[in-house]
Specification:
Transferase(Phosphotransferase), domain 1; phosphoric diester hydrolase activity; 29 strands; Serine threonine kinase; 3 domains; flat; transferase; alpha/beta; seven-stranded mixed beta sheet
């Protein structure tokens, strides 16, 4: 981490007011981006040096008596030494108004409330803080309106932006700044400005004391600031989405994207901040011949690794939706149901940036840039749009469908990337970057009697006759015939010609298909160096000798292992890189591997995976306090509440021991590979959510389901003993105490909210192929009661009014407790699916599903949920019954080990996601609105949660 605040100048010796004023003025720096030409800022590091605690005391002693001196010193620097009014004091010195410092202290105005604004009321100056709250006592201050106005002007020199970059997080900051806000950016020397895309890019340095950085790699030395004018005619329709765009979740997926570090909007401009690159792919081509050789194994491996990384990151863009903040329910539903419709639209060598020392490892690295052109799916941007709707493309690399009427989609990028890969391969193989220009001239020559363009397909081809220019076909063949063309390069060129430069977009490879083919090439390079870099023109006997049959997997075996082929859109849960350790296991137990691959197949089929629905900037928009505007006299049974099933069971929390009975079949076969496979199978079945409970709280979930297991010692919690969490036979990380303490922290932060927390004894052990419950620990009731008392939460057996439980949690008890000791609402008895009832007149609740009935089909499960939702809506609003509708289910039949049958929670969730959203959207739009009780889902996300709780509010 870094956040430098100290300058290099010596401490002040002369502290008379004029010398302090001069020191502050001399500290001013001109910002790199200043449309007025009049701005300046004082770096925080310089300010702390000039107005050190000692100097502050000496300066104030010249203006104030001993009676108030120490009070003021402690108000400028707090008791713990943190600056509280340092910026205010510096501004007052600049405007020769230090005598007003006491007014600021008495009014309790601190630096955190800057910048202030001033309004005139007659001749009085009325001040307002940054949140537009009036500073009441300012109207009684003795300064004139011109003096107050001068203060608000000079304060901006002390209010420059403080930038935060946390590359270890999935989120980035986006700031909305006033038009006169000063940016702590300093020009390079000499200044460097480049143009491209929809704006200009400026090379800048960020003032060190205005930058907080945390990352695993060295802090960037300089930055690229891309300015995009919002009012520009050609401005992308989703520039606002880009400024708050979703950051790719997995580190490996975003490694080859020019990562947006943070962004801000000032006046009519968006500013996007990236790390400054050494150049683009064309600049790398100039140096490649002297750095890389196609007949050196390490260089060949680097070449394919860069290509595979670019494809992986491009594929992650194709799978992302915009973080565009929808303002209507219709827009939210459109975004949620729209599918994977991202595309870049302008892949070309100039948009692949080159870093010569990536993350400090001295290796050349390529990233996809100019994401300002990236089109994401929103109500204004769909996957297949007309060509007229695609802006910013480059003529040379445009795909044939641009000439047709079918529209363009994500595979447009694959064509463009195929063109770039062909040029990249030619420079690498021929070791001469001039070949790119020659290749372009040849394409122009072929087209000279028509439109005279250097495109890769004839203008007007439309992709229906399978045409590419003859020059392109000849170039590919010439490269394959080159004396340094190894088998790997030949396969790479085949991939370009057969999969990427396919004129018919519907037959063209997706990014996932290209990535699998490249991983296949990488795998074979790792297995045999002669495949990676030995020329194909060796004598046949030598080529056969160099690659043993056992080292070349057949296409069928690669598909089975998930290495290539198969489904197109592989998910993070079942990355093909995880299959290496299971290949031998599959030979010993093909049925076990079939089961695992079937799980992968189901995962790959999911087009609406909640994993890709995270909003990038929870700081800008989240729903942490949606209950705040609800009337306090409502019963909690009169509210529509989002809930989650097995709320803590996200994949990273699931622990399936590889040496336990959970892997009974694997151990029976004494095969460690099968042990790993069965662990993965049970992890998948145990996983019910993709967002942590903390995220769930912040996007509006208010009913949580926690399952408890035996008392144990938690080393990661300081060695304390506590009840653990579980999902059946799978343990979950963290203890019940730790999770509930975290929920208490949330309620302290948002005291308007209330939570419904269901706690159930759920521990199971596997005996053979069947689960057996573990005898409950009757001490659980004491542990839960103690936690509820500690936080002063609600333990009543009735459904309370909202005003009774704001800032508190309601216990839904699913474990035994004596009848004469009230401890929450009793859910320990069998589910009341027939009539709404409880053991007594209070705490009535109802659900539709009979617990004695096994898992349901998709249609049956949705009918159950829908019937419950409609019943809750149509019932008497004052019936004091809590209704529970659930779309959660899992079906696993292990009675025949060799022929297991299963539907995972993720599969149910995906299948029921669309009907639930459509139902909720229809209800929101209907004239007759009602309450729907608790709606429980697996793999809940912000869209689902928001559509549920917005039923409580008028449209």
């Amino acid at each position: 981490m870094s956040g430098e605040v100290l300058g290099s100048e010596p401490p002040m010796v002369d502290i008379d007011m004029s010398s302090v004023w001069e020191a502050l003025m001399n500290a001013c720096r001109k910002p790199a981006i200043d449309h007025t030409g009049k701005q300046a800022f004082i770096p925080l590091g310089r300010l702390l040096r000039i107005l050190s605690p000692r100097n502050v005391e000496r300066i104030l002693s010249q203006r104030f008596t001993d009676e108030t001196l120490m009070i003021l010193v402690n108000e400028v620097y707090g008791a713990n030494g943190e600056p509280r009014r340092l910026k205010i004091m510096a501004t007052l010195i600049l405007v020769n108004g230090l005598n007003f410092l006491l007014d600021f202290v008495n009014a309790k105005v601190e630096d955190s409330q800057l910048p202030l604004t001033v309004h005139r009321r007659g001749q009085q100056a009325i001040l307002y803080d940054r949140e537009k709250n009036e500073i009441e006592s300012s109207k009684n201050w003795t300064w004139s309106y011109p003096e107050a106005e001068y203060f608000t002007m000079k304060q901006m020199q002390l209010c420059s932006l403080f930038c935060t970059i946390d590359e270890e997080e999935q989120f980035m900051d986006h700031f909305r700044l006033p038009a006169d806000f000063v940016l702590p950016l300093v020009d390079s020397d000499p200044p460097v400005i480049r143009s491209g895309g929809y704006g200009k890019v400026t090379k800048v340095f960020i003032e060190p004391s205005h930058l907080w950085y945390r990352g695993s790699y060295p802090k960037p030395e300089c930055f690229a600031i891309k300015a995009v004018q919002h009012s520009s005619i050609d401005h992308p329709s989703e520039a606002d989405s880009l400024a708050r765009r979703l950051v790719i979740k997995k580190l490996a997926d975003r490694e080859h994207l020019h990562q947006l570090l943070f962004s801000f909007r000032r006046a009519d401009y968006y500013y996007l901040v990236f790390e400054w690159a050494d150049g683009d792919l064309t600049d790398l081509w100039e140096t490649m011949p002297s750095l890389y050789r196609p007949d050196v194994e390490e260089d060949a491996v680097w070449f394919y690794r860069q290509c595979a990384g670019i494809v992986r990151s491009l594929g992650s863009l194709h799978e992302q939706r915009s973080s565009y903040t929808a303002t209507t329910v219709e827009e939210r539903v459109h975004i949620a149901l729209g599918g994977k419709y991202g595309r870049h639209s302008d892949i070309k060598p100039q948009n692949l940036l080159w870093f010569s020392d990536f993350q400090g490892d001295k290796k050349d690295h390529l990233v996809i840039a100019d994401l300002g052109l990236t089109q994401f799916n929103t109500s204004q941007s769909k996957s297949h749009v007309s060509w007229a709707g695609v802006k910013g493309y480059t003529q040379t690399y445009k795909a044939p469908e641009s000439e047709g009427s079918d529209g363009v989609g994500a595979r447009y990028d694959i064509w463009s990337l195929g063109c770039v890969f062909l040029e990249h391969a030619s420079v690498f193989l021929m070791r001469d970057n001039s070949c790119v220009r020659t290749f372009s001239d040849n394409r122009l020559e072929e087209d000279k009697e028509k439109d005279f363009t250097d495109t890769y397909t004839p203008i007007g081809s439309r992709g229906i006759r399978g045409e590419v220019k003859k020059t392109v076909t000849k170039m590919i063949q010439d490269l394959k015939d080159h004396e340094l063309c190894a088998p790997s390069m030949s396969d790479f060129l085949d991939l370009i010609s057969e999969g990427m430069l396919e004129p018919n977009q519907y037959d063209r490879h997706t990014a996932g298909m290209v990535l699998r083919a490249l991983r296949d090439i990488q795998l074979r390079c790792d297995q045999d160096p002669r495949y990676a870099c030995v020329s194909r023109h060796l004598p046949l006997k030598d080529r056969l000798k160099s690659i043993p049959d056992s080292r070349i997997p057949s296409r069928q075996s690669r598909i089975l292992a998930g290495i290539s082929g198969g489904q197109e859109g592989s998910r993070a849960n079942f990355d093909s890189s995880q299959t290496d350790s299971t290949e031998d296991a599959g030979a010993a137990d093909p049925e076990a591997l079939r089961m695992l691959n079937e799980l992968r197949h189901m995962s790959n089929d999911i087009n609406l995976s909640p994993d890709i629905l995270q909003l990038q900037i929870p700081k800008i928009r989240f729903d942490g306090d949606w209950m705040k505007t609800l009337p306090g006299d409502l019963s909690v049974t009169q509210i529509s509440i989002p809930g989650t099933h097995n709320s803590h069971a996200i994949k990273s929390n699931v622990v399936v021991a590889s040496n336990g009975n959970v892997n009974f079949a694997a151990h029976a076969l004494y095969n460690p590979g099968i042990v790993s496979m069965y662990a993965e199978i049970y992890t998948t079945i145990a996983t019910c959510q993709s967002f942590s409970m903390w995220d769930q709280l912040h996007f509006g979930v208010r009913c949580f389901d926690l399952r408890v297991r035996s008392w144990e010692k938690f080393d990661n919690e300081g060695g304390r003993w506590a009840f653990g969490l579980c999902h059946g036979s799978a343990k979950l990380k963290e203890s019940l105490t730790q999770v509930l303490d975290g929920m208490a922290d949330f309620l302290k932060k948002y005291p308007s909210e209330t939570l419904l927390i269901s706690i159930k004894w759920d521990e199971e052990k596997l005996e053979g192929s069947k689960s057996a419950p573990v005898t409950p620990d009757w001490n659980l009731r004491f542990g839960v009661s103690e936690i509820w008392d500690k936080h002063n939460w609600f333990k009543g057996a009735y459904w309370p009014k909202l005003h009774e439980v704001r800032g508190r949690a309601i216990l839904l008890r699913r474990f035994w407790n004596p009848d004469n000791e009230p401890l929450g609402i009793n859910f320990d008895k069998p589910s009341f699916f027939d009539n709404a009832r409880s053991d007594g007149p209070e705490g009535k609740w109802k659900q539709m599903t009979d617990p004695s009935v096994g898992s349901k089909t998709i249609e049956e499960r949705w009918k159950c949920a829908r019937d419950m939702l409609i019943e809750a809506k149509e019932a008497d609003f004052n019936d004091d019954v809590m209704y529970f509708a659930s779309t959660c289910d899992v079906w696993l039949d292990m009675t025949e080990l060799k022929k297991p049958k299963f539907w995972t929670p993720l599969y149910y969730s995906q299948q029921l996601y669309q009907p639930l959203l459509l139902f909720m959207n229809g209800e929101y739009r209907s004239q007759k609105k009602g309450r729907y009780g608790v709606v429980v889902t697996d793999f809940c996300n912000q869209t689902v949660s928001q559509l549920i709780f917005e039923q409580n509010f008028s449209r």
